[in-house]
Amino acid sequence: MTQATEMTRQKNNAEELAWWVALHGAENVGPATFHRLVHKFGSPGEVLRNASADTLVGLAGASSSLLDSLVFAMIRMDHTRKVVEKLISRGVRIITFEDAEYPARLNRLRWPPGVIYTMGAFSDADDASVSIAGSTHPSARGFRTTYRIAGALAARGHTIVSGNARGIDTAAHLGALDAGGRSIFVLPEGILNFRTHAEIPHGKIERRAVILSDRPPEAQWTREGALERNRVIAALCESFLVVEALPDGGAIHAFRIARKLGIPAYAVSYTTDTPAGNLQAMQEGAGEVSSLREAVKAAANRANIQPQAQQTFDWNDDE
Fold first, then answer.
1. Most-buried pick from 20, 84, 173, 316 (CB within 10 A)?
2. Does the pLDDT at position 309 exceed 60?
3. Residues facing 117 on adjacent strands
4. What is the pairing mode between strands 115-119 and 129-134?
């Protein structure tokens, strides 16, 4: 389906999509509650039109605050319809978990996002994807290493997935796009609040990137939204790489999700001063990669490199 055809389809289905967007954006409706409500009532429209104290009886997580949120979402339907018009006019695709275009990998999650919003089209090439995570305030070494790894992987056909934060995420996206490859930007805020970082040329994003958000379209950044975003970053990939992380930071949170999903995960080991977060990931089962060659090999094999196979390399050296 071409993008033009998809936009026409969305315009024709704008009213139905508005119900999905309204339920998705309702306060107190996380992924689990979203799925339970749709399963119970049949569709988001039926949820919002028929929710009451009586009809919510027996639903896990039901409460007076949930009912209040659903009533408020119903009251705001006219505003939601305008939001949907804005999304469609900007070329944003509204994809529900029932749609054929919904990324199958998100179904690895126990409660996948009920709705995602995207700009740019997914490709078969995205099957070979690598998620890269790390600090928002990395060292120059960490930024350079990320850029080189992302570029090398992209040049070999891997799509790079990261979170559109500053630091390691920016280096990952930039490295992939500069190498002529693809990148998926997973946002911690609503897609209507998407802004590119100055380091990344907008033209390259338009041609070779997918912008994806599982947050309500107008949502601002929140810690909760960032944590939810980490689930998507982990679920979309075939392998996960920590380049430079803080202990128990966002990168480690995403790494742990990847591990729970059974996705091969790795952490960069440096000749000296390996970051504490990387060491923590290794202690929790991440395979060690100590060179650009090993990072590429790990992504291709999609299996952890055994510790006894490691050698010491300087990341400033060539492959």
1. 173
2. no
3. 94, 213
4. unpaired
Q: What is the mean pLDDT of residues 9-24?
A: 89
Q: For position 5, what pLDDT does the model report?
A: 62
Looking at residue 291, its pLDDT comes to 93
Q: In what order do the strands lie in the sheet with 159-162?
A: 93-96, 115-119, 209-213, 183-187, 159-162, 129-134, 239-244, 265-268, 287-289
- With respect to CATH, is domain 3-93 assigned 1.10.150? yes
Q: Where are the domains of the chain?
A: 3-93, 124-309
Gap between the Cα atoms of 271 and 290, Å rounded: 8
> Please, which residues have CB within 8 angstroms of residue 282's CB and are 6 or more apart in sequence?
267, 269, 288
Rounded distance between C-alpha atoms, residue 257 and residue 250, angstroms: 11
Residue 23: pLDDT over 50: yes
- 8-state DSSP, 109: S
pLDDT above 90 for 276? yes
pLDDT at 317 over 50: no
Distance separating the N- and C-terminal Cα atoms of the chain: 40
CATH number for region 124-309: 3.40.50.450
CA distance 25 to 83: 11
